[in-house]
Design brief:
The structure is a homodimer. Chain A is mainly beta. The first copy, chain A, is built from two helices and eight strands, in the order βββββαβββα.
Amino acid sequence: MLFPFSLRIFRSLSAAVVVLAGGSAALIFAAGGDESSQAQIAYPAGYRQWVHVKSGIIGSEFPMEPERGIHHVYANQTALTGFESGTFEDGSVLVYDLVSLSEKGGISTEGARRRIDVMVKDSKLYADNGGWRFGRFMADDHEHNIMTPDLHQVCFQCHEKQKAHGFVFSEFRK
Amino acid sequence: MLFPFSLRIFRSLSAAVVVLAGGSAALIFAAGGDESSQAQIAYPAGYRQWVHVKSGIIGSEFPMEPERGIHHVYANQTALTGFESGTFEDGSVLVYDLVSLSEKGGISTEGARRRIDVMVKDSKLYADNGGWRFGRFMADDHEHNIMTPDLHQVCFQCHEKQKAHGFVFSEFRK
């Protein structure tokens, strides 16, 4: 969940493929340049109507300011089945939605979106990363996946600790 | 959102009616005794897979301890349409899910459920309350709606301030 200090917009998009994942469509771009070896994922349209997995708060005591706020995790139907079965099938998509908070009189309310992080499962396309590919979109920008190879490595190295749980940290809060 | 200081379990349930509300079923009981004039609502089964409307946090500075925690609002499909159209049709169900929080190192995580509050819209059955009926289920108890006439009055008197917004406080966070 580290913040990217250099924002890079992927160009040279060479192809777009729509993957139907349990009724939800995840648009995947095959990127050119340094990222040509792996497809870049596009904005997960409609995720706010997916199932809400859990939430958490990163407060003012946490040293990294860009991580602060309230976050919600959403799952498409394929990923939701993964929480139940323990296996995330191809087509699983998870979204980490980070929203700013403002406090008054002990009550904190949601404000603007800070960013979303996305995880898409394709065991063949992303075989080198446990079958997952990560993406990041700042604020309400739906167009520019700012994931870089370095940041992707940081994401994966942390999620790799959760290999026994399909590389996923969250558990579904019943 | 006031806490009921006397917990009363409704008995003498005389009838149960299943209302199909936009694909989601809200079970309604016609209660006997003092509450015989209005049907009591039952636990909104499956609401955790409904759409997540918004969240908020009531922290340690807030004077009423039973209200503290993180809360999430969920809407069934009929209520979701209401957020878009501005009119909550009969069959709309909203759930206020209050969950305890524990903090460590600036990171707050969700714990046990404290209670859920439920709003069900039926403009004929609940005509005296703007078409809404409120219910409350403590912790993970799915069986006992502990709403009392006094608490219901408190709920409605507050929600009445939102008459211009269909008696609903929440707005859908996009």
